[in-house]
């Protein structure tokens, strides 16, 4: 009877799951949890299951660290030139233009002033999305100017680092920024104005070798990769297996390279507490 007849085409093809709309969900790279984007944002871009801290940019950090409406950006229009006329797979100048269009940023750091629990600070936050958060002449100049604001207004300085290191397309111009930012921070220290450094995933290369590790207090997010050379490079160089968790925040805390590991949910209150303590004791 026809009632019990199956058509071959109905059972030969696998049923397809409906595709999820792009941009609505994220998969946690640590535990594999599928997270609705709005839920992720409400949880400050941390996995609600395993607390993995997703990589975010300056816009997101500003949104939850600063009192609403108090952040004022400075040097927004500053863009990198191409002093060496560098060419790799394509011209550096073209890569700058395409990255600006893609990210909506003019370079790999955003600087300005704002209030954290009604306490004014000078602030710089790097963006890994802009050529790997690499430090070129604009990054160094903007951070130096932000440090100058802290010096002139006698307010604390906070820098959030997120970088692959110096920007090779600018050669020595990039390396010069290590000395320039460090010199500015030395002047800040002489004036007894506090500097808090926050390290996020990843903080490596010339950034680690300069301003990132010079804070009066150094904070890191959980499981952030922090170091000068990457673990693969070190392993190949020394020909040995590295300790478990090498160059992660927890390893650095255990070995005395950083002062605290702080989750994003605790970050604003921790910074506020440190500003109170450091600023009052430095007056």
What descriptive keywords fit this protein?
single chain, 283 residues, alpha/beta, 2-enoyl-CoA Hydratase, Chain A, domain 1, 7-stranded mixed sheet, two-stranded antiparallel ribbon, 9 strands
Helices, strands, pairings?
Layout: H1 8-12, E1 25-27, E2 34-36, H2 37-42, H3 58-65, E3 72-74, H4 92-103, E4 109-116, E5 119-126, H5 137-153, E6 157-163, H6 171-190, E7 195-203, H7 205-208, E8 217-220, H8 231-238, H9 249-254, E9 260-261, H10 264-282
Helix pairs in contact: 5-6
The percentage helix is 25-40%
Under CATH at level 1, the class of the largest domain stands as: Alpha Beta
Going by helix content, strand content and strand pairing, the class is alpha/beta
Sheet having the most strands: 7 strands, mixed
End-to-end Cα distance, whole Å, is 94 Å
Reading the helices and strands in chain order gives HEEHHEHEEHEHEHEHHEH
Shape: globular
Note the beta-strand portion.
15-25%
Q: Which superfamily, in CATH terms, is the homologous superfamily of the largest domain?
A: 2-enoyl-CoA Hydratase, Chain A, domain 1
The number of domains is 2
Give the count of helical stretches: 10
CATH fold naming of the largest domain: 2-enoyl-CoA Hydratase, Chain A, domain 1
Poorly predicted regions:
10-20
Q: Total number of β-strand segments?
A: 9
Biggest sheet, spatial arrangement of strands: 3-4-5-6-7-8-9
Tell me what the CATH architecture of the largest domain is.
Alpha-Beta Complex
Protein name: Acetyl-coenzyme A carboxylase carboxyl transferase subunit beta
Organism: Stygiobacter electus
Subcellular location: Cytoplasm
Subunit structure: Acetyl-CoA carboxylase is a heterohexamer composed of biotin carboxyl carrier protein (AccB), biotin carboxylase (AccC) and two subunits each of ACCase subunit alpha (AccA) and ACCase subunit beta (AccD).
